[in-house]
Amino acid sequence: MIDKARIEQAVRMIIEAIGEDPEREGLCGTPRRVAEMYEEVFAGLSQDPRPLLQVGFEEEHHEMVILRDIPFHSMCEHHLLPFYGVAHIGYIPKGRVVGISKIARVVEVLARRPQLQERLTSQIADVIDEVLVPSGVGVVLEATHLCMIMRGVKKPGSLVVTSANRGIFRTRLATREEFIALVRGNRGR
Known about the structure:
Elements: H1 4-17, H2 30-41, E1 56-58, E2 65-76, E3 82-92, E4 96-98, H3 100-111, E5 114-115, H4 117-132, E6 136-145, H5 146-149, E7 160-167, H6 168-171, H7 173-184
Parallel strand pairs: 2-5
Antiparallel strand pairs: 1-4, 2-3, 3-6, 6-7
Helix pairs in contact: 1-2, 3-4
């Protein structure tokens, strides 16, 4: 449960600490707006993504299913700055498929937490693998991190790519290569 009153108090203190007046017209509503934003941005902390995958369909499909270019945004836990990008997820069902919107919702729930891209990638793969029990799962995330652009090294245009493979995606090179080829499509990446 998000404690919006404490967030408002903390934001007010930050505004004062940077030498600004929290009562100034442009800033007087900022603590409340930040608290409301954090409630939304971190909503995944109070949600379990597993139930999203419980409703499936018996379908004798044993070939790869891929959902590509799922937009996501999250907050880097090191600087509380956003990172955002797209997720590509593939799995090979063992006779049971899940609605593809449910996979996108898993990404959203797990991204709405203080995160590291590496952890988010693994969590997505682990949840799908645990609940669907497929032959394998592959996840690739491509993201831009504001902590790389706005501060520190200041490198706009850099892209962080992470992957996680479970089951046959990890043990069978041909399956992993098929997944990557289908994710790339005709984009030439």
